[in-house]
Amino acid sequence: MCNLLLLLLLLVLLILVQVQKRPLKVAVEHLKDLPYSSGDDIVKATYMELVSTLKDLLAQHPIYREQLQSSYQFGSDFQDLSRLADMAAALTSAQETDLQAVLAELSIPDRWVNLQVLILVFFSGSRLRFVSSS
């Protein structure tokens, strides 16, 4: 037993020495959204529909209102269409693969279309749960 503990301790020390010699490094490359025209009628209409849906959701569920307020308080820019879409996706309880598909989409109008589907499915289910619990 003592030999096993000593061997384990030596292994941990060896790992620590290796990490100190060559610390692990990670390179992060942020994805850039494809250019889009914020003045485009489709983008404006999609933005207004998304904001309207979010307002309906926030009116029914105070938890989401608190999450949105804390995001706003810490400097989230809701005029940035990309960040608004990412924040709205975070409010849903969609499957991880569906959320990743929204976040990985570089075209903002396409991201919004995918997001709108997620939000409407989530909002419909949320509304059904709210009605059945009343």
Number of domains: 1
Number of helices: 6
Termini distance?
A: 61 Å
Low-confidence stretches: 128-134
Which term fits the overall shape? Answer: elongated
Beta-strand segment tally: 0
- Structural class call reads mainly alpha
What oligomeric state do these chains adopt? single chain
Query: What is the H/E order?
Result: HHHHHH
- What fraction strand? under 5%
Largest β-sheet summary: none
Q: Your description of this structure?
A:
With 134 residues, the chain is mainly α. It has one domain (38-133). It is 73% helix and 0% strand. The protein contains 6 helices and no strands. It has helices spanning 2-21, 41-60, 62-73, 81-91, 96-104, 108-133. Helix 4 (81-91) packs parallel to helix 6 (108-133) and helix 5 packs antiparallel against helix 6. Residues 128-134 have low confidence and may be disordered.
For this entry, give a set of tags.
6 helices; 134 residues; mainly alpha; 0% strand; disordered C terminus
In brief, what are we looking at here?
This protein is mostly helical. 73% of the residues lie in helices and 0% in strands. The chain has one domain (38-133).
